[in-house]
Amino acid sequence: MSLPVRIHFLGAAGTVTGSKYLLELLDKKILIDCGMFQGIKELRELNWQQLPIKAEDIDLVLLTHGHTDHVGFLPRLVSMGYRGPIWGTAPTLDIADIILRDSAKIQEEDAERANKDGFTKHSPAKPLYNTLDVEKTIPLFEAKPEGEWILLDDTFKIRFQKNGHILGSVFIELEANGKRLVFSGDVGRNNDPLLFDPVKPESADLLIMESTYGNRLHKETDVQMQLKTIIDETVQKGGSLIIPSFSVERAQLLMYYLWKLHIQKKLPPSIPVILDSPMGIDAFSVFRKHHKWHKLSMDECLEISRRVHMVQSYKETWEIIDRKEPKIVIAGSGMVTGGRVLSYLKVYLGRPETTVLLAGYQAEGTRGRRLLDGESEIKFFGKMHPVKARIEMLDGLSGHADCNELLSWVSKINQQPKRVYLVHGESDAREHLKEKLKEKQGWTAETPSMFDIDEISL
Fold first, then answer.
1. Does 21 share its domain with 164?
2. At what angle do helices 278-289 and 250-263 cross, to 10 degrees?
3. Could you tell me the residue range of the domain that residue 438 belongs to?
4. Cβ(355)–Cβ(392) under 8 Å?
């Protein structure tokens, strides 16, 4: 039996942010991910626009994982009228809870600071959503198991399968009228120190696939040795190492590597290792809660928490900033778009002895990308700040599969899907992966644009 399907590409189509895909089939409207747009101003402004669909008409939201660009729009969707369930794995929902509360708080603080200091074009500046909006969103969360089919009705079922990107992350399979639709989410990598290898899909009539690193091959890098070298060089100059970090998975991975250097006696014993990210601290507690989702033992989690000092207050942040001795600081956010890392950079970015170590993908338009591109000054807190610190990129920490790993991920799908869409990637990455899929799999893929609607029959 054929299956008519309509897909709305509401985000992460031609860009790597704002993931949202609305699926219409069997009289149901299902939203896959509900991400906030980040990066350049033109993208951020999309968060303030009304969706081209009515939020109250959506029946179900499914989440692939808890990153902001996949869950950060949920309170806005609820404020627009959505009242249905929000499904994800238990770790994903725990992480989303943390991220949304933190996001609301940061937006409220940013709006208050902008109004107080007068660096806003809006009068008054307002947050996209506030803590009350988050409190209305969390009760809609429903945790679902991984690896088991969940029946919606006699002809429609859904399954979440591990994909190794962050704790709790999955790709999503929907099966209706015997046709299978697969949404990759963000695909992780094999042999991750913390997470299990991604499961590979075995069939797909329709495949929506990420392409973040569709034009790259990750370097074979000894991350620990690279990290040790950067630490040694920075400490020898009397400087501090500031690591802007994503609070979920990346911060925990950095803590793990620093702990490994410590137990191998390759880290200066006197140098403090500091995690200054309330969200990162909360995310580490999610690691401790959901042991079946990662490789660390309870004892290892405890030992890591003993070696890393976790900052409890913003007052303590400034006490640490004022200390002159070398230190290693992990602080949010990973693309330097906000968070406590900005307080450190306000003081340390202008010091030549400082090293700023970027530890993940830096989207177009973010401060992290501008630092990586070598700009001599960047703007935050309403002022320009000179960049005199050494800027480095830590290779080998990416949570995204590269081109060859993406090709491997689809290798068990023997029959070409009727439709393959490449999303969540900039234009060069999508085009390169499109060519490789044709070359290796014999598949023809499409590269939809933002707000495209496609109607097909599977």
1. yes
2. 80
3. 4-216+399-457
4. yes
The number of beta carbons lying within 10 Å of the beta carbon of residue 227 is 25
| pLDDT tens-place values along the chain, 458 residues long | 789 999 999 999 999 999 999 999 999 999 999 999 987 888 989 999 989 899 999 999 999 999 999 999 999 999 999 999 999 999 999 999 999 998 898 888 777 777 776 665 666 778 899 999 999 999 999 999 999 999 998 889 999 999 999 999 999 999 999 999 999 999 999 999 999 999 999 999 999 999 999 999 998 889 999 999 999 999 999 999 999 998 888 899 999 999 999 999 999 888 999 999 988 899 999 999 998 999 999 999 999 999 999 998 989 999 999 999 999 999 988 899 888 999 999 999 999 999 999 998 887 788 999 999 999 999 998 899 999 999 999 988 888 999 999 999 999 998 999 999 999 999 999 999 999 999 999 999 999 999 999 999 99
Q: Is 384 exposed, middle or buried (0-12, 13-18, 19+ CB in 10 A)?
A: exposed
Based on the fold, state whether residues 53 and 182 are members of the same structural domain. Answer: yes
Q: What is the CATH number of the domain that holds 183?
A: 3.60.15.10
- One domain for residues 295 and 414: no
63 close to 143: Cβ distance less than 8 angstroms: no
| In a shared domain, residues 229 and 212 | no
Q: How far apart are CA 36 and CA 74, in angstroms?
A: 8
> Last residue of some domain: 393, 412, 446?
393
CB 273 within 8 A of CB 258: yes
- Domain closes at, from 362, 393, 424: 393
Q: For residue 100, which of 31, 164, 10, 36 has the smallest C-alpha distance?
A: 36
User: Is residue 294 within 8 Å of 252, Cβ to Cβ?
Assistant: no
> By the 8 A CB rule, do 17 and 33 touch?
no
Which among 194, 63, 163, 158 has a CA at the least distance from the CA of 408?
A: 163
Residue 452: which residues within 8 A CB-CB, separation 6 or more? Answer: 8, 9, 13
**b/e per residue, 345-379, with b = 16+ CB within 10 A?**
beebbeeebbbbbbbbbbbebbbbbbbbeeeeebe
Provide the number of structural domains found in the chain: 2
End-to-end CA distance of the chain: 9
